[in-house]
């Protein structure tokens, strides 16, 4: 415990006026005893006050008052609202919905339209009948792999260079 002093004495020790000490007191500066009524001064422990001041200095002004915090939050909200209005940012749930719609459309295209069109194009160009299932199978395999993707996994559960042997594929040379 340090020396017990009055507000006037503490102001002299720390080199600040009494109003500053009152403000610091409202911000949490320790007080040993509150004076009751006029003429009875508060009492301060110099060691506790100096420790508090050192702690405040260590925070380097990062502690903000309730009012400052409220003002900052309101400002942040206004800034975010303006950014949304200017289409500079989008809400994450909106992006998820859009992304899911794009993925669904791509899956429909890849599974339903693409194999048939590619098979028809290859058949017409090379004069042979191409089974659209030969095109559809690898696409389904890739889509299955993608659906098993977990964003928390560091690496995919499957090897992208490994062939998927679902139907007992034939090897060359047999």
Written overview of the protein:
The termini are far apart. Helix content is 59%, strand content 3%. It is rod-shaped and about 105 Å long. The chain has helices at residues 7-14, 18-26, 46-59, 66-85, 92-126, 132-147; strands at residues 4-6, 43-45. It has a two-stranded antiparallel ribbon. By secondary structure, the protein is mainly α. The chain is built from 6 helices and 2 strands. Among the domains are: 4-59, Orthogonal Bundle (Arc Repressor Mutant, subunit A), CATH 1.10.10.10; 92-147. α5 (92-126) packs antiparallel against α6.
Mean pLDDT: 82
Specify the structural class: mainly alpha
Spatial order of the strands forming the largest sheet: 1-2
- Unreliable sequence segments: 167-174
Pattern of helices and strands: EHHEHHHH
Predict the CATH topology of one domain: Arc Repressor Mutant, subunit A
SS summary, helix count: 6
CATH hierarchy class name of one domain: Mainly Alpha
The CATH architecture classification of one domain is Orthogonal Bundle
Pfam families: Phage_Nu1
Protein name: DNA packaging protein
InterPro entries: DNA-bd_dom_put_sf (IPR009061), Phage_lambda_Nu1_terminase-ssu (IPR010906), WH-like_DNA-bd_sf (IPR036388)
Organism: Pseudomonas alkylphenolica
């Amino acid at each position: 415990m340090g020396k017990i002093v009055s507000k006037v004495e503490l102001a002299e020790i720390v080199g600040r006026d009494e109003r500053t000490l009152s403000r610091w007191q409202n911000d949490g500066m320790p007080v040993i005893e509150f004076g009751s009524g006029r003429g009875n001064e508060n009492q301060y422990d110099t060691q506790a006050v100096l420790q508090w001041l050192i702690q405040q200095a260590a925070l380097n002004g990062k502690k903000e008052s309730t009012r400052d915090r409220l003002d900052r939050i309101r400002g942040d909200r206004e800034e975010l609202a303006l950014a949304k209005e200017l289409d500079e940012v989008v809400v994450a749930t909106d992006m998820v919905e859009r992304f899911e719609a794009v993925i669904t459309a791509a899956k429909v295209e890849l599974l339903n339209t693409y194999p048939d069109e590619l098979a028809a194009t290859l058949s017409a160009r090379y004069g042979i009948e191409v089974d659209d299932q030969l095109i559809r199978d690898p696409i389904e395999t890739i889509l299955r792999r993608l659906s098993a993707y977990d964003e928390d996994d560091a690496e995919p559960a499957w090897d992208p260079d490994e062939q998927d042997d679902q139907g007992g594929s034939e090897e060359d040379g047999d």
